[in-house]
Design goal:
Blueprint (H helix, E strand, L loop, with lengths): L2 H8 L4 H4 L1 H25 L12 H15 L3 H12 L2 H12 L16 H11 L3 E5 L5 H13 L4 E6 L16 E5 L2 H5 L5 E6 L5 H11 L3 E9 L7 H8 L2 E7 L11 E7 L3
Helix pairs in contact: 4-5, 4-7, 5-7, 7-8
Length: about 280
């Protein structure tokens, strides 16, 4: 389009009518792709909650830089940690075997894509916490990722995973006894039984009230270098406001699933203030 004609169109009072076909095409392309991915997922996937997927290559690159900024580790180290968990065939086969032997195994697809959890793994590998606490065990994939990273760092590191459902943790087999400690019951009450926490992640009841109750419960138990994560920061501002109130730093990463209709969740991170 010639510059003069383009200028005439952009300044015309009929601009909304003239550009309507362009806007319609853009909207249809976007909604059409999402509809295709949704239909494909309905036919090929068995999942109905806590979806699993890989991340777009660009998004993985951004995640590596995000974790590097949060932990102070180099980008080369981050990519090494990503490669470490990606190439751990024994770990992948363990997850598949646990799913195959359990009656709820059909709730997760066969390929154990970790999505943003590779970020959890890299943060733990880089910061080397001794006491890790996760609320919201669910099937236990996150627990295993944390335990794998903790084991790579220190044979004495322990992962406490909390859930209100006795049937949670189907992926956590006896091989993780001593490494992963499951606590069943109200998360806020169970958090009060712990003496200290180096790493915490909220992934349980995602109401803002409960999320805040968990962060308030852990506050007196955090060590000086403790890192706190929320798997709900794409929905609420609880962790960011809690960080501001208590003089901590807040960061956020938004994931982009690869070939999946779900728009992705995120990682909210709260760090002790640098001052």
């Amino acid at each position: 389009m010639k510059p003069r004609l383009r200028a005439q169109i952009l300044t015309s009072r009929f601009l909304p009518v003239l550009v309507f076909p362009v806007r319609l095409r853009t909207a249809l392309l976007f909604s059409g792709r999402n509809s295709f991915l949704s239909f494909k997922w309905l036919l090929s996937s068995r999942e109905f909650a806590n979806y699993t997927y890989d991340l777009k290559p660009r998004n993985r690159e951004h995640l590596a830089w995000f974790v590097s900024s949060v932990t102070g580790a180099t980008i080369a180290e981050m990519k090494e940690y990503f490669s470490e968990i990606d190439s751990d065939v024994e770990f992948q086969n363990y997850i598949k075997a646990r799913l195959a032997m359990h009656r709820r195994g059909g709730e997760i697809d066969k390929n154990p894509f970790l999505g943003r959890r590779i970020g959890w793994y890299a943060i733990v590998r880089a910061t080397k916490p001794k006491i890790l606490v996760e609320t919201g065990t669910e099937k236990g994939m996150g627990s295993l990722v944390l335990a794998k990273a903790a084991a790579k760092n220190d044979n004495q590191a322990i992962v406490y995973t909390l859930d209100i459902e006795p049937s949670s943790g189907l992926m956590i087999g006896p091989e993780y006894d001593g490494r992963v400690v499951r606590l069943i019951g109200d998360s806020v009450m169970n958090l009060s039984t712990l003496e200290k926490i180096d790493f915490f992640i909220h992934d349980s009841d995602h109401s803002a009230e409960h999320e805040l109750a968990e962060f308030e419960a852990i506050l007196p138990r955090l060590t000086n270098r403790a890192i706190c994560l929320s798997d709900n920061s794409h929905v609420t501002t609880v962790l960011s406001k809690w960080s501001e109130t208590h003089g901590r730093q807040f960061y956020f990463f938004k994931e982009e699933p690869l070939d999946h209709w779900y728009p992705g969740a995120g990682i909210g991170v709260s760090l002790p203030s640098a001052n």
